[in-house]
Design the sequence.
């Protein structure tokens, strides 16, 4: 067929381009150096009537698209947290694209549902989750791939709400859900990701942001006090979102303390381990997972640190009925003869449609094995410690928080303004890219080890740039020691 002939040629060219992009990515500025609106000056304001030539399109990729790309997979990119990328994941996703099924029910593509169930068990075992989270155990637990951690939190939050409402109504048959809703209250820490508070805004349900301790962790005594206050007001505590690996500092809430309270108070505990979850592939980091047995649901993003391309957010629950009963609708066009006897993932998520995302997970797990992924984590944590040592070797700087995984928070022992200036100069240099955060009125810089191709020489290079810019900024300003 003419179309497939053309695709074979163009596909080869595209693979060539992709491989070349990765091979030479280091030469590109990690942060796009363009101004807002740059693109409308470079491309027409309406789609072509007749097909454009493939060659012209590919030329435009380099000419108009790439200048506006921030290169997340450059070894000079140290902003945010990493986002996954690997050739096995890309290959798996290509296959998903051509199958192009929408696996909302088992019958809509049995392999889509069954592979997802199985690889989520593989992954759950690989990160050391308790057996109750696996589908192969007592049959009630299991995993699902959501698009993002934000969706996983929202799904957990909404499911917890419905579960609690059902329970309250058992003893108050004269009431309905709208009597209970205004009394519900959820908790998270002041270090939780913005998506957690956003879940409460979307659902219009009260959530309290509780103060973290000096290690930036949410502790049991703070939660217990908030629960007592709220119960005294006649409110119903129903949900806690704990974080393993917070976005600002990569700090860890005390799951054991929080979990024991949740168990006693009949509260759903969701664990958001978006970034840090990948580290639990390595047994030596599982001490950070302590207390996970109390969780009702658990989530991490293989699309962050586990070399899987966006989107792939892995979520597990101990009891699938909590999700299936929460958002149940059953139109006749989605019914099928195996209904009830098989998993229909449409009940586990907010959208109806879903991609065959487990393929990329399966490809990565098989083509790399757990060992290669462990090596990747260990190497990146080591690189973060290398950077930490460099920071500590220069008395003008200090470390903020603790370096536990692949993130180093640091600052000049100077005013917030001088630190802001340093970050601005770093990003203007076009050589490396970092972002900042501000906590408890202290402005600091975040150095994350991101691209899988990051080596020690890139860490040293970044530090050299930071020191050079610091020298020029502090020129004329007396050093603090
Ligand atoms: C990155 C991050 C998120 C958001 O992840 P998405 O998949 O983009 O929604 C949520 N929580 C934490 C702790 C994160 O680091």
Sequence:
């Amino acid at each position: 067929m003419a179309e497939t002939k053309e695709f074979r040629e163009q596909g080869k060219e595209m693979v060539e381009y992709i491989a070349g992009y990765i091979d030479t990515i280091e030469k590109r500025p990690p942060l796009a150096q363009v101004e807002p609106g740059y693109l409308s000056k470079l491309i027409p304001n309406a789609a072509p009537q007749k097909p454009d030539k493939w060659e012209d399109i590919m030329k435009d990729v380099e000419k108009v698209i790439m200048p506006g790309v921030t290169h997340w997979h450059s070894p000079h990119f140290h902003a945010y947290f990493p986002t996954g990328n690997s050739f096995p994941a890309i290959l798996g996703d290509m296959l998903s694209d051509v199958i192009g099924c929408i696996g909302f029910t088992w019958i809509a593509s049995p392999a889509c549902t069954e592979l997802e169930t199985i690889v989520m068990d593989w992954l759950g075992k690989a990160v050391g989750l308790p057996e109750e989270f696996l589908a192969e155990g007592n049959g009630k637990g299991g995993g699902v791939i959501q698009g993002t951690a934000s969706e996983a939190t929202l799904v957990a939050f909404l499911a917890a709400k419905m579960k609690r409402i059902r329970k309250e109504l058992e003893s108050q048959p004269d009431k309905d859900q709208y009597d209970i809703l205004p009394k519900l209250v959820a908790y998270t820490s002041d270090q939780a990701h913005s998506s957690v508070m956003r879940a409460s805004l979307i659902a219009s349900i009260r959530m309290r942001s509780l103060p973290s301790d000096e290690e930036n962790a949410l502790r049991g005594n703070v939660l217990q006090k908030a629960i007592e206050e709220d119960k005294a007001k006649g409110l119903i505590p129903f949900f806690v979102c704990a974080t393993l690996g917070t976005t600002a500092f990569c700090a860890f809430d005390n799951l054991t303390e929080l979990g024991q309270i949740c168990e006693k108070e009949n509260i759903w505990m969701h664990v958001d381990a978006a970034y840090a979850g990948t580290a639990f592939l390595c047994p030596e980091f599982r001490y950070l997972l302590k207390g996970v047995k109390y969780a009702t649901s658990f989530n991490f993003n293989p699309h962050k640190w586990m070399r899987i391309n966006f989107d792939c957010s892995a979520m597990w629950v101990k009891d699938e009925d909590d999700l299936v009963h929460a958002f149940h609708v059953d139109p006749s066009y989605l019914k099928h003869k195996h209904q009830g006897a098989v998993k229909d993932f449409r009940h586990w998520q907010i959208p109806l449609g879903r991609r065959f995302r487990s393929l990329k997970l399966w490809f990565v797990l098989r083509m790399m094995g757990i060992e290669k992924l462990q090596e990747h984590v260990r190497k990146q944590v080591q690189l973060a410690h290398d950077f930490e040592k460099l920071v500590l070797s220069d008395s003008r700087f200090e470390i903020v928080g603790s370096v536990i995984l692949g993130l180093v928070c640091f600052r000049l022992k100077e005013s917030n303004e001088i630190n802001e200036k340093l970050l601005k100069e770093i990003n203007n240099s076009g050589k490396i890219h970092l972002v900042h955060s501000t906590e408890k009125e202290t402005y600091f810089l975040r150095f994350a080890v991101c691209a899988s191709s990051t080596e020690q020489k890139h860490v040293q290079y970044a530090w050299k740039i930071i020191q050079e810019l610091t020298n020029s900024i502090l020129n004329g300003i007396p050093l603090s020691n």
User: Anything to note?
Assistant: Residues 81, 148-150, 193, 195, 243, 246-247, 272, 274-275, 301, 313 surround pyridoxal-5'-phosphate (CB under 6 Å). The domain at 101-356 is CATH 3.40.640.10 (Aspartate Aminotransferase; domain 2).
